[in-house]
Amino acid sequence: MTTPPPAGATDRPASPLAVFIAFSLLALQGFGGVLAVAQRELVDRRNWLSRAEFVELYAVAQLLPGPNVVNLSLMIGDRYFGWRGALAAIGGMLLAPLLVVLALAASYQQLAQYPAVAGALRGMGAVAAGLILTMALKMLATLRGNVLGPALCTALGLVTLAAIAVLRMPLAWVVIGLGLSGWGLARWRIALLDARRARSRKDDESC
After folding, report:
1. How far is 56 from 43, CA to CA, in rounded Å?
2. pLDDT tens digits, the chain, 207 residues: what are they?
3. What is the pLDDT of residues 22-54, one digit of tens each?
4. Domain edge (last residue) among 144, 179, 198
């Protein structure tokens, strides 16, 4: 049984085959990382998700074990076509890259000695970093409606950056520690908002 399309998205894949093709093309573009390409393809180009929904799903994918984008593809496929969509999405994410990696691994020893190949790989790394930075800037707009508010979101982001880039802490500990901190702060803010709404209703009823 499939679930209805997410709110905010105006389009949806036509079939599990469309999901497989989309994620295959997405995976083949992901030199150095698929996340930035996934945001562009699924949000900007295909409009299967809104930016806010992409951020929410990616946050869940980040907390689950395994590759983040594979987790993301699994959830998106399941959202539209259930287990068939999930299998189609994972198949698209893994099949084509597996064939490419096997071919490159077989020929790497012969090609790695050429300076042009080494330079091309370094160039791909720079492009991947630029794509991720661009995606992060686009996603900043979604924080306006976040329950934590811009100040707490900025503080969590800066602490995360310092923990990884400056303190060199393991990513797993950063995700668990700051993820739980963000969850706790969100619950606290939601409780405050609920209490304010309850007081406002009482004041209206008393009047």
Report:
1. 13
2. 444 444 454 678 888 999 999 898 888 876 656 777 788 888 888 888 888 888 888 888 877 777 788 888 999 999 999 999 999 999 998 888 888 878 877 776 777 677 776 677 677 767 667 767 776 776 676 677 777 877 888 888 888 888 888 888 887 888 888 888 888 888 888 888 888 887 877 766 776
3. 898 888 876 656 777 788 888 888 888 888 888
4. 144
Q: Say if residue 60 is in the same domain as residue 135.
A: yes
* Domain C-terminal end among 123, 144, 165: 144
Domain co-membership, 155 together with 62: no
Q: Check whether residue 29 and residue 113 sit in a common domain.
A: yes
Q: Are residues 110 and 131 in the same domain?
A: yes
Alpha helices in the chain (DSSP H): 16-28, 35-39, 51-63, 68-111, 115-139, 149-161, 171-206
From residue 128, alpha-carbon distances to 24, 61, 103, 122, 203 in Å are 18, 20, 22, 10, 54
The answer to whether the beta carbons of residues 57 and 50 sit under 8 Å apart is no
Please tell me whether residues 44 and 2 are part of one structural domain: yes
Please give the DSSP secondary-structure letter assigned to residue 7: T
Cβ-count burial 93-132 (b if 16+ within 10 Å, e if not): bbebeeeeeeeeeeeeeeeeeeeeeeeeeeeeeeebeebb
Which residue segment(s) compose the domain that 66 sits in? 1-144
